[in-house]
Amino acid sequence: MSEQRSQDLDEWSGGSEWRGLHELLSLMSKKWAVAVLLTLRPRPLRFAQLQREIGCGNVKTMTVTLRSLEEAGLVDRQVIDSRPPGVLYKMTGLGHTLIGSLDPVRKWSVDHEFDPSRLDT
């Protein structure tokens, strides 16, 4: 994060304690981020399996999302020594705690019948 952006965010939010939440929400709003975490929640998957289960047809989009989640420590990438070589993605312990902490937000959206189409302008 640039120093100016960090200062602007601190000023806007009233302090640095909100910066982490802002950055987390920015990460989670990436296309397919939540779907990736929910799909990896029960078990690790190879890239193609994950892409198929989510329904993401764009390899680049999926790769960017996975890299972002990996850099944040939410997903682990493991190279498999097999024929053909492969990569296995699994949710980390940190990822599991994040998904668990989002359950109250999910419940809020259901209880309040939140409709994202209301956000369209």
Features:
three-stranded antiparallel beta sheet, 121 residues, 3 strands, mainly alpha, Arc Repressor Mutant, subunit A
Notes on the protein architecture:
The protein is mainly alpha-helical and 121 residues long. It has a domain at 31-108: Orthogonal Bundle (Arc Repressor Mutant, subunit A), CATH 1.10.10.10. Helix content is 57%, strand content 12%. Strands 1-3-2 form a three-stranded antiparallel beta sheet. The mean pLDDT is 86.
Shape: globular
Portion of residues in beta strands equals: 5-15%
**Estimated helix fraction:** 55-70%
Structure annotation, total helices: 6
| Pattern of helices and strands | HHHEHHEEH
Short account of what is shown:
The chain has 121 residues and is mostly helical.
Q: What is this structure's SSE topology?
A:
Elements: H1 3-13, H2 19-28, H3 33-40, E1 45-46, H4 47-54, H5 59-71, E2 75-80, E3 86-91, H6 93-111
Antiparallel strand pairs: 1-3, 2-3
